[in-house]
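Section 3.1: Structural characterization of target chains.
Under the original work plan, the team committed to producing a structural model for every single-chain target entering the pipeline before any wet-lab resources were allocated. The record below documents one such target. The sequence was received from the expression subgroup and is listed exactly as submitted; it comprises 260 residues.
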Amino acid sequence: MQQTMQVDPSVGRAEVSVYWKPGCSSCLKAKEFIEEQGIAYESINVIEDHDAMQEVLGAGLRSIPVVRKGNQYIYAQSLDEVAALLGISRNHVRLPHDQLLERWDSVLDRAKEIIGAFSDELLERPAIAVRQRSIKEVCSHIFQINEAFLMSLEDASVDARALGTDPRENIVTRADLMAYIESVHTRYRRWLSDGGLRKIPQRMSTYYGEQDSGQVLERAVWHSAQHARQLDHVAAGLGAELVIPAELYSGLPMPKRLWA
């Protein structure tokens, strides 16, 4: 049962707040996690609330999702850190690295199959009505997450956040998109066959702090899988059969909801 929401007078918001925007998978996962704990929170859509992002930036953070408790703001990409902020325990067991890497390869393969059936016209449609993000951008984002992970392993100073989220200006046509995702997937498979598993360090630098590599890898895999799942349902809404089997999501901390 959810607790009564308390207001923090210092910021004029609830004691616990989540800053998010539509279509953000990490935002959705953070909200669902807090809901599952029965903790009341203020849901702050930074697209609708124009002051909200300034609150995040003023706290020294530069992207969302962000969870605030009192005067403490943290990135919400690591649910372990969210749990620590909220004073709750999180007993989560991750899949081993080798299984996560194999699963990622399968997710990318299925995503490539789904995207290959999309027309140029469909790719330009908005993924969701409440955010300026095309289906094409969601398609490329799935593979940008993978590319950013590999590049951050090669150079810890790489801004993986920007690599994984900013739309690629050189991806204009469907042919551009297919060439890009094929190049990323080929690079990933080559990295795997060259012993990529052994090249993953125990800790990794990220824009949300130094993290256990298992956390970074797991988040990257389920993040790609969630967007692939969204595209699968876009295609199904147009009459296609779902391509991704449920077992591909097994063991991944996927959001329960699709978009919101």
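Strands lie at 7-8, 13-14, 16-20, 42-45, 66-69, 72-75, 203-204, 211-212.
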